[in-house]
Every structure is written in structure tokens, then in C-alpha cells.
Amino acid sequence: MRVLVIGSGAREHALCVALTSDPAVTALACAPGNAGTRTVAETGAGGESLVVADPVAVAALATGWGADLVVIGPEVPLVAGAADAVRDAGIACFGPSEQAAQIEGSKSFAKHVMAAAGVPTARSWPVGGPAELETALDEAGAPYVVKDDGLAAGKGVVVTADRDAAVAHGHRVLDSGGAVLVEEFLDGPEVSLFAVTDGTTVLPLLPAQDAKRRDDGDAGPNTGGMGAYAPLPWAPPGLVDEVLATVLQPTVDEMRRRGEPFSGLLYAGLALTSRGVRVVEFNARFGDPETQVVLPLLETPLAGLLHAAATGTLADHPPLTWRDGAAVTVVVAASGYPEAPRTGDPVTGADGPGVLHAGTAVGADGTVRSAGGRVLAVTATGADLAAARQAAYERVAAVRLAGAHWRSDIALAAVEGRIAP
Ligand code: AMP
Ligand code: GLY
């Protein structure tokens, strides 16, 4: 099977590493890719300059390269209709249609689906203008949760006790032409649970947790994600079965009922609140950086699984099997991330197993340079979470990137038994 992965982050590097270890994969390409994906995958002709938001270009690359399966990593091409274009070209594609990707692309659409499917989530107030913003904040109360309704690369949400900051974020989104959603605040630890689905059958993966805030102790601004670990030693037994029954399957069934079947990766971002499990958000794709810790633990060959989802044959797929142990990933970010990341700095000590590349490029002089805010996702597995954590941080210490920062507490609260649902 010739597999083409679309995207250029550490999630796509992790997908490539997992796909290369599936004996069914005879050729692998990743476009546009990065300096890390180049070590395990080709790019396809012109693939290094692929514009992922252009569905015609994605489909043309897949056709030209002779792909049997296309795996779309990021949300932007999905929301733009890249999966539809690939399927229209007669090629199997892992990823939802443009319509179905609205479950991530529009938070109000996701709320409608959840209401129809009876899926538990935060109460929400759609905001059409500045006056409604004040009313919604009064009704929701502090702490305030103010969201950009559309895609915002993990930076559209502000959670704050500061009313002025909540109002300012709402105005910023409205002024830029976006729609705003105010939500009830959900307490309790967060869980990311991914499920592979063909639109009917749903196979959940291992639960993971990511660290969204920039700084240790969950301080600082929200980011695309600063690290992750899996599995969750503190998760209640039966959590995955419960979420399958109350969240994932009803959502997939409701999407099919609406005539917008969702196939691909349904990512449920959950809060385990004192009143039970609530959906914080849905994403229409593998999470980043959680994928970097979930895939190294998956024993089932990945290409076969994704191909079954893409071709509607997941009901015939054998049950998933997992390796013992745990995985931890630590994101090494560029100076200035997330506000204004500096790029172009040399990156060394970034080769070898487990060092997944996010924002890197090979410069004209052949050196690897930073090319984005999140530069590397340094990943290790171990017999348990403590061992995986130690191995990941030892590997981080060998990386050289001027001005780099990373969190020093990824998975620490879980290792120390400080998380309770
Ligand atoms: P989202 O983009 O919707 O995933 O939001 C990003 C992050 O903001 C989430 O992972 C949570 O940490 C936080 N967040 C979002 N919605 C809520 C909520 N209703 N209550 C508390 N925290 C939230
Ligand atoms: N880890 C958060 C996301 O992928 O959206």
C-alpha cells in the first residue's frame, strides 16, 4: 500500500513512523513534511511546497504519486474539503468530508449535533454582537469561557476570572468578523480520547492528556499543546466504555442520521467534572501532541486500521492491541512561542528515535533550522509513566536550540498521584 500523509507537524512525523513499521506499507510520502518526516518519507513531486488548504492540489499530488491511501493530519485541509477531493479522485482517504469536519470547524455546529445526540457538554450562549456578549457573561458567570466559534489553531479560547479580559477576547473575535460562543466553565481533569471510525463502527484508542498552557503548573497562555502522556493511570476503570456509549457512538450515529457521516478520527476533548463526563470540544483529526504518545503504544498495524476506516470496513477489523508501558512527549518550543515565535535558528541534537519534528526545515546550507513555534516533540516510552518521563527529559537535554523553552512538568502530577477525577 502506498500511503501519503498530508501535513508538516510532529503529529505527521509520528504518523509516518507508525506507518513505516506496518509491513503493508510499500511506499510512504509526507507533504509538505518537515526535516524529520524527510528521514522516513519522500515528499512526492512538488510535495514540499504543497498548499494543504488547496483540495485540488492535495488530490493532484495523491493522483500523481499513485497513492492508495491518503491520511490527512491537520484540520485546515479537512475543513477545506481535501478529503472529498481525494475521494472524488478515486483514492481512499482517512479523514472526514468538508461537511463532517464542521464538528471541529464550527463550535456551534458541534453543539447542535451534541444536543440532538444527547451528548453531555457545557451549556453555551452564542454571541452575535457586543451587547449579547455582556448578557452571556452575566448568565454564565465567572470563571468566564469565551471561544472563537471557528478554527483558531488552539488559540481561540480564553478561560479567565477577569471580566475585562473575557470581554476583550470576545471583542477581538467579533471585530475580526468571527462569531463568539460563551460557555459554562467545566472543572475537573481533561482527557483526550481518539476514536477511529468509518461512519458506523467506532474503535476508541487509549486515553491521553495534553498540557495546553505554556508554563509549568498550567500557567500562561493556551498553546497548540506543550506535551502529553498516555495512558492515564488515574482514569476511572470503564471510562473508555462509558465515553464510547455516551459520547462517541451517539455522535457518529447522529452525523450519519443527518446525512453527513463522519469517517476518520473523532477526537473527544473531555472534562471529568464532579457532575460526570462533559465534552469540551470535538476535533476532526488526530490531536497534536497526543498522537505522539498514543501511536507508539499501538501494536495494531496502523495503515490497515486507517485503510479499513477509509473504506467502510472497520466492522471486520480485529480488535486493537496495545503495548504495555507508557509514553511521554515534551514539546520544545521556539523563543516567543506562542505569541511571536522566532524561526530560522539552527537545531542540533534532534535526530534519532523519539525526536519527532514539528516546525523544522532544512536550510539552504543543509542544516536543520526552526521553522515554527513548536519545533520538536521529544517522545519516549518506558515500562511506566515515571520511566517514560525520565527518558523523554533526558533526550530533551541533548537538544540545542537558541532561546528554546519547554515545560518541565509534563506527566508529573500523574506520576506523583496528584490527579483525581
Ligand atoms: P478548545 O479549543 O475548545 O479545546 O479549548 C481549549 C482549552 O480551553 C480546553 O482544552 C480547556 O482547557 C479550556 N476550555 C475550553 N472550554 C472550557 C470550558 N467550558 N470550561 C473550562 N475550560 C475550558
Ligand atoms: N492537543 C490539542 C489539539 O490537538 O487540538
Automatic annotation (TrEMBL):
Question: Which pathway does it take part in?
Answer: Purine metabolism; IMP biosynthesis via de novo pathway; N(1)-(5-phospho-D-ribosyl)glycinamide from 5-phospho-alpha-D-ribose 1-diphosphate: step 2/2
Q: What is its EC number?
A: 6.3.4.13
Reading the lineage from the top rank, the first entry is Bacteria
Q: What class of enzyme is it?
A: ligase
The cofactor required is: Mg(2+); Mn(2+)
- Family from the record: Belongs to the GARS family.
Q: Which SUPFAM superfamilies match?
A: Glutathione synthetase ATP-binding domain-like, PreATP-grasp domain, Rudiment single hybrid motif
Provide the catalytic activity annotation.
Answer: 5-phospho-beta-D-ribosylamine + glycine + ATP = N(1)-(5-phospho-beta-D-ribosyl)glycinamide + ADP + phosphate + H(+)
Locate the ATP-grasp domain: which residues? 111-311
MF terms from GO for this chain are: ATP binding; metal ion binding; phosphoribosylamine-glycine ligase activity
Q: Which Pfam families does the entry link to?
A: GARS_A, GARS_C, GARS_N
Q: Which InterPro entries match?
A: ATP-grasp, ATP_grasp_subdomain_1, PreATP-grasp_dom_sf, PRibGlycinamid_synth_ATP-grasp, PRibGlycinamide_synth, PRibGlycinamide_synth_C-dom, PRibGlycinamide_synth_C_sf, PRibGlycinamide_synth_CS
Gene3D superfamilies per the UniProt record, alphabetical: 3.40.50.20, ATP-grasp fold, A domain (3.30.1490.20), ATP-grasp fold, B domain (3.30.470.20), Phosphoribosylglycinamide synthetase, C-terminal domain (3.90.600.10)
What is this protein called in UniProt?
Phosphoribosylamine--glycine ligase
**Protein species of origin:** Geodermatophilus amargosae
